[in-house]
Amino acid sequence: MSTHSGLSSCCLSGKLQEGKPVGKVETIGDLPTYISEPENKSKAKTLIYITDIFGYEFVNARLLADQYAKGGLYVYIPDLHQGDSLPIEFLQSVEPPLKKREQLSLIDKTKNTATVGTTLPPWLLKHPQSTVKPLLDKFIDHVRKIPGTGKIGVIGFCWGGRYAILEAHAHEGSGGADAAFSCHPGLLEVPADIDPVTKPVALAVGDKDSLLDNDSVKKIKDILSNKPGLDSEVTVYEDQVHGFAIRGDFSSEKDKKAMDDAEKQGIAWFNKHLA
Description:
The chain has 275 residues and is an alpha/beta fold. It has nine helices and ten strands. The chain has an eight-stranded mixed sheet with strand order 2-3-5-4-6-7-9-10, with helices on both faces. Strand 9, helix 7 (214-225) and strand 10 form a beta-alpha-beta unit. The longest helix has 21 residues, at 106-126.
């Protein structure tokens, strides 16, 4: 029996980061796409970045893509929401980082729950797997045909984290990654989404993630570790909530370190498996 991790107010929470993205926007495979290039412009190690519910224009996503590019990867962030990402203002109006979250009153928590209930379900209905997965597979197929493209990795955050794992399944024909990295995936079904994994996969999860409990994380570790010949790793970050790797609080040294360490984990993973 699979357990299903849903989406909660954590998916609408977090911090905007400061900085100016250095990449460019082009249309790739019919989708508006943010592109961040490594210094040598090489596509030998290509990375497709699947965003959270805030989409490809979210400044945090673009800044993080720039960091992966500095790490030697050619990064694409396609607009898989097709212009229908959730508005950024939800970051400021819903659940804050862990320290402040624990100080919320019952009234505030009730307001958060109500906001989630009226915001997420309608959006998810408009973006089901039956629409998103073929769109992603088609994008991957298009990127593979771009001259100079070598191996392809897929990275995903929150809503996008599950799709990164799905691309690590065996694929016949369309789609499929050579390696995947999933940060605090939402809507993950355990073991159903983990059992079919055949490609190198890594996860970064927080031990305070309300969408992926510690029992589910243990099951994921057990399943992956029992796959002969499969390289996998599951790193648990202490005192980190859902969304920490992309929407963490830089004013907290512990949260900033977790964000930085998850970034280093991902860059190292792809440089190992896309070489």
